[in-house]
Amino acid sequence: MSSNIDSVLIEDRLFPPTEEFAAKARIKQADFDALHKRADEDYTGFWADQARDMLDWHKPFSEVLDDSRAPHFKWFADGQLNVSYNCLDRHLADRADKTAIIFEGEQGDVRKISYQQLTDEVSQFANALKAQGIESGDRVIIYMPMTPEAVIAMQACARIGAIHSVVFGGFSAESLRDRINDAAAKMVITADGGHRGGKIVELKAASDKALDHGCPSIESVIVYQRTKHDIPMQDGRDIWWHDAIKGQSTQCDPVWVDAEHPLFLLYTSGSTGKPKGIQHSSAGYLLGAIVTNKWVFDLQDDDVFWCTADVGWITGHTYVAYGPLAAGGTAVIYEGAPTVPDAGRFWKICEDHKVSIFYTAPTAIRALMKLGDDLPNQYDLSSIRLLGTVGEPINPEAWIWYHKTIGKERCPIVDTWWQTETGANMIAPIPGVVATKPGSCTIPLPGIAADVVDEDGNSITEANKGGYLVITKPFPSMLRTVWGDEQRYVDTYWPKFGGKYYLAGDSARKDKDGYFWIMGRIDDVLNVSGHRLGTMEVESALVAHERVAEAAVVGYPHDVKGEAIFAYVVLKGKRPEGGVDEALTQELRNWVGEQIGPIAKPDQIRYSDNLPKTRSGKIMRRLLRNIARGEEITSDTSTLENEDILLQLQGKA
Ligand code: 7RM
Asked: What is the pTM of this model?
């Protein structure tokens, strides 16, 4: 594996927190030292302390970690709690009137919801779910716009022990159907539509299309009225949200569940076609969410925390729907696109709502950076005191822009490495203590045992030598399994090193100070605008088109999106003249958009008579990657049956 020498040389700069920030931070140097000392000396005791301190238990646990069936770990297994109780009810004594959610719609409508109101609405909707026959353990799909009702639906499921699976509103009907069927869900909660980019996202239409294709497990569909445009409702199956809650009480006793009771499934891409239903627990997940909101985001009582992620992604679960509420904070939710009415919208929202903590993805930072400093400079960003990034490595140029233009050189930047599977931040600075370096997610959090190892699982001690990023000890917020596929859980996450370490699937290196630098994925997973997509998923979508015989997809660097998609396509009939067919390319792009979602549309498509394969029939992805990136070809091309193919792949024939 190569190491990124340029960035090491340039980015040895250290950015310590300002004295002012450090003085007011929740975790100060002495607290930080004490946390690490405790975690080092008594790892499970450390997590037990946190679980007792930060969560309210209905029945206290006596056992901390059960590793008797590793890698199927259990945390706090004989304890009982309720996640929604921990996010809502327990705050009512001292913050009933505090704002829990500040919502802004794309068209400018604003709603502020207090903890009392949110508790009432969640309880009322939970009663509506029960009235529709939803019980503890049932799966419920949430396919919603970014409105508070998405969070209310999630919290209501948690309140009655139902397992939700949020499907990102940008996913197509096909993706939705696959997820419904894999989870064997009983209900879909959706909306007529959402506002995004000045248009209406047709959620109900997509949901109808998914259900028309056959989702035998679905019994009912609850439809939240957002856009108020005309949509058909199916008698006996569909019910409006406002009708479902009519007459329902705003009191709903939380259902106490075991610590290990599944809280949610969230589907994520792997290197094979079928998305995996990542299954998270109740107590362990919530613990990860609350500790990281406090430690990494330094979330305090007067903060306004805006994490721009959609609740369709794990970031929106942990840093919008659960974590900030568990910590008693105020969270901002914005429905729409960052460019409506212009690209100053994010900064306007920060000014209007006095956002103090702002968390977004490098792809958004780069897109906004390209538009220059004039837009952000028109707004008062002085309320911001902490910035965060997640989803992919941030390039130092974007980091410095974020630091200067948005943070005015005053705000720490927390670059947080974690995954859908880890549930919460894993490697990230604690901002009042750990000095940052542009492009590095810094060091593991207390209680998180991350390392970089070689092929044999030995820790790499040499500075800046790349290897596998692993987690060497189980941690509370980790995934519990892949829904319905224990074997895939074991094979994907514990395949190497005798099953001893959790394999994250990323390569990384540590520098001389022990700071981690993420180098990228080790498998065929793309990271487009911070969204994980399997190459296989895009390939399967392409070959599902009637004219496509074979397809191979690779990623190549892209200024804004981080990675863009390059597809090599073999058609069933003749290859287009000179390898160009603009109309077909457009058709295939739209086709993939429909099959998976617009984010998966290939940026470039090149037609060839054949794909380059090894003798064993494996597609030579490295070769395709070299070509897509305009790099020198290092692969042995002697096995290619037809040398002309190489010219076709390069677009030269
Ligand atoms: C939270 C999330 C996970 C993958 C992960 C990495 C990449 C995420 C960073 C990062 C470098 C970061 N969940 N990744 N955060 N790479 N620095 N701070 O993104 O499941 O959708 O993706 O994203 O490759 O394995 S995810």
From this structure: 0.88
